[in-house]
Every structure is written in structure tokens, then in C-alpha cells.
Amino acid sequence: PSMISWGNMINSARLEMARDPVVWWSLTAAFFSMFTLVLAANLFADVVRDAFDPRTQTTQ
Questions:
Q1: Distance (Å, whole) CA 26 – CA 23
Q2: Residue 1, pLDDT score
Q3: Within 10 A of 12 (CB to CB), how many other CB atoms are there?
């Protein structure tokens, strides 16, 4: 049995794109999933940094 991973998902999508008719939604789904994951991780890291880094807090 194959192991589920991002790489296997992209590879299977690449193989699907090589067939006729072109099945493009597999690659698109993998791209948007990875994009969303990276965006969420970056936003979470920014929130944590802003909450715990005293240099970013402004006093009024």
C-alpha cells in the first residue's frame, strides 16, 4: 500500500495530467491545500510572535 503524503498526491496528479483528457482538478486541489496550509502556518506564527515578543508591543 502506498503511503499518503503531499509528494504522492502531487505525483499522482502529475500522472493524471499526462493522460487524455486532462484531469486538472487533482493538481489544483493539491496546490490549494498546500497553499492554505502554508498560509495558515504563517498567520499563526505571526499571531504568536505578536503575542509574545515585547518589542512589537506599543505603549500609548
A1: 7
A2: 54
A3: 14
| Grid cell locating 45 | 506564527
Instruction: Copy the grid coordinates of residue 24.
Output: 486538472
Give helix 25-52 / helix 6-17 axis angle, nearest 10°.
150
Phi, psi of 5 (to 5 degrees): -155, 170
Q: pTM above the 0.70 mark?
A: no
The pLDDT tens digits for 9-38 are 888 878 777 776 666 776 788 889 999 999
Which cell goes with 8? 504522492
Amino acid at 37: L
